[in-house]
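Re: the request from the purification team.
They wanted to know what the chain is likely to look like in 3D before they choose a buffer screen. I agreed to run a prediction and write the result into the notebook, where they can find it.
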Amino acid sequence: DVERSRGLGDVYKRQVRGAQWWVVAETAIIGLVQPVALKLAYHGLGPSAATGLKFVMTIANVISPILYYLRLRLLDRHSRADIMLSTVLIVASSGAILIMQICGILRLALGPGWDTVTMLMLVVAMIWKFVTVVSTIPFTTLRRLGRGATVLVLRSLTTAAYIGGVLAALAARPTTTGVLCAFVLAEAASCVLFEIACVRAKREEGR
């Protein structure tokens, strides 16, 4: 029995280490999106517009801690209360950002470089972050089900969608708003892919 327990313990440790590698690889893939997008925007839009995009993404990322909180909570267990709370916080934060834009607070805080940023850019960026909440739900379900390989493949596909979308936006209509719309569409595609994979995984698990 002792030997069996040790054997099971070794298997569990290998599984945990394997899961950690999936997570590290997935995190690295996600981390490629914004730097690559900014690099492409710099060459496709020019320095001024690329700076505006960087400003918008920086402000939009103020909301990211809420998404990180939601992800951590949902990785433990599915909770409608946490989803609702995070949604309310993101809507409130987005509203505060838009009010600061209307009042000129962001221009005052960030200087002349902010002049390239429009209200439409901020609205699209807020929509992008909100769609990310939706994709987080099936993503965390897959992770709870131990589908690390599936998540890694889907993250690779959605990262390609992000980069491909940015390239398409720059080719069709090279504007900062166009790039941000590409972000929204890529994240929406991510929602669909993760939801399909989640439904299949639940079916296989018999849930």
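For the purification team: The helical segments are 2-45, 47-60, 64-76, 80-103, 105-110, 119-144, 148-172, 176-205.
Please add any questions underneath this entry.
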